[in-house]
Structures are given as C-alpha cells and as structure tokens.
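Duplicate of earlier report; (S)-mandelate dehydrogenase input re-posted below.
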Amino acid sequence: MNIDAAINIHDLRELARRRLPRVIYEYLEGAAEDEVTLRRNRSSLDEVEFIPRIVAGHKKADLGVTLFGESLAFPAVVGPTGMNGIFHRHADLVLARAAEQAGAAFALATASNESIETVGAATRGVKWFQLYPWGDRKVWRRLLDRAAAAGFTCLVLTVDTPVPGNRERDRRNRFAHDVTISPRTVLDGLLHPGWLWNVWLKGVPRFENLLEFVHPAADIHEIAAFTRKHRHPDLSWDDVAAIRAMWKGPFLIKGVLSVQDARQALNMGADGIVISNHGGRQLDGAVSTIQSIEPIADAVGKRLTILADGGFRRGADIVKALSLGANAVVLGRAPLYGVAAAGAAGAARALQILEEETARTMILLGCGSVKTLSPDYVSAPYQQRR
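Output:
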C-alpha cells in the first residue's frame, strides 16, 4: 500500500506491522500482562456516543486551542515516547517536524534517541520536554536546564513508572530497551530489509540524553542498565515539589487517573495534568483514560489544564475526549504507526488523517469550535449526569 493510499490509522498500523521485525512491532504494540487496560482504552472510547445538533450552520470547524499561552492549530500533542529510533532512523526529529507542520505540539522523551539540543535546534514548533525521574536530583536539574536552554517551554513529569510494567511480549522476545541477538531475531531482521538498512545497520540507537550520566561512548546495553538501576519506586510528592521548583515554565504531571491525585497535583503547583494509564503498559487493570476525564474535569478543570491519552485512533476519539473535558489530547501509538510505516511521510500522514477526521466529526456533530464542546454532545455509560 502506498502511504498516500492509507485512509486511516489502522492502515498505517498494518503498514508498520509489515515493515518492522516482529520483536520491534510487538514492543510498539504491546502492553502489560493480559493487556486488559490496552483493550479497555479502546472499548471505553467505543462506548461513548455522540448527540449531534442538526442544522447548526457551520461551514468549517475551528480546531485551534491555546495551551499555556501558545497557539495550536490542532488540539494535540505528539506524545513523549521512548526508543523511537528503533522504528525509523531519526524518528524523534521526524515526529517533531510533523507536529510543527500540523500545528500540534511535540513532547520529547527523556528516553529519546535524539538529544534535547538536536531536537531543540531542528524545529520552531511548540516543544515540551518529558522527564523520567531517573537518577538523583542533580540528574533531574541537569536535564531540565538543558531543556530550557534548548527552547522547550513546558515540562511533563511522568510519575506512573516507579517500576517497569510486566510487558510479557517483550519478555518473551527478550527485549528491554535493547535487543538480545538470537538466530530468530537475525532471521526476522533479514526478512525486513528496509528496516534493516534504515535502522539496524546504521547502529543501534542510544538514549542520547543520558550519555553524560554514564559515559560518552556508552552503548545501548550500558544506558539501559542505568535506567533500570536508577528508578525511584519511592518517588514522593516532596520529589515532585522539588522538580516543580527546578522548572520555571508550565508544569504537567503525567499519569493521573483519580480526582484525589488531580487535586494533589494542583496543590503541588502543577499547571496541568495528563490523564494517562501509560497506554496500558504499566498497571494492567487500570481504569481507562476516557472514563476518567469528566470527573477530574469537574473537580479541577477550571484551575488545571487537562490533557489525556490512551487509545486515540480516530478524530472522533479526540472529539469525545474534548467533549468530556480535556483541553487537548496526547497521541502515542498513532503517530508512531505512521513513522514506522514510512518515516516523515508516514508521520505527516498520521496527523493529517486525524486532523481531517476531527474536523469532519465536528461538522457532523454540529459544533463549529473545539472550544465550545461540552458533555452535552456525548453520552456514555460512565458519564456524570447533571
């Protein structure tokens, strides 16, 4: 299938599956344990029904939003995902540029395969930085200072990974931030020559942002060992407050699923939260993100900017999240399918598809602006009735 013939995210997903070796595709696709939360993110979205307004008289839909003083033409953030370089060489740069082109924001992960400085210099779009609190407070401060100097305007602190999730697909494939070479993986790579040439034969991507905390010549195995050794299962709200004090710009906490934690985030000085269950990759059985949005928005939505991720594959999914109270969404696997399928063209196509679907859904719903979406436009089994 030609990339221009891909008419939805599912088409891009299939192209990615064909192009990637199995071990790499399963890292992208998989989740924790029985993958209940992964499926629930999707099934809960499917349970939300639209209540359209007819004869609304809107020729087009205004998808623009303002987040922390910065204007976006599309209410989405290309989310902070790690190890993107195993899907396509320089994937982080590709995604950042695709986000800029689409008028979305881009969030760079601590575990990116391009450095903070490289991505900062490569795009003038809205750029955020995501921090995994690995290492000690000196490591955190150093990463935040680098991000601020490189033009990243917002910090996203991920707090839902105190220990690695039990991702059984990766365990079976002996994949843990690095690939164990076996006859099977060698054969699988040879059967995918496009990926082999683009990624593997040019050197295994490293976590470039972490090199200075290991040593400049560290390989992926040494850096992966650093990330495993320096996690913080004892991360506390005092640590969150310390990170808040280190960062002078807008500050979001990612991994919130309860009203209580949303209120605590507000009390700790957060400017926003990302309602997230890590795409089902951490705690299996966690509540779906879409059903968490409205109660949290009712509790703190007037004082916190609310974003949400979790299974968005259609523009309709984005509209559902915004209707229930999110200010914007965070996209994880959807743009990754695009970049894994066809690099820059695939990443751009993924965002184009979602933007077109979002605008079409808005017109069919009878709503001319995402700013005027409300729970009145949807019905869901878990919706709070007023």
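The first strand starts at residue 49 and ends at 50.

Merging into the original ticket.
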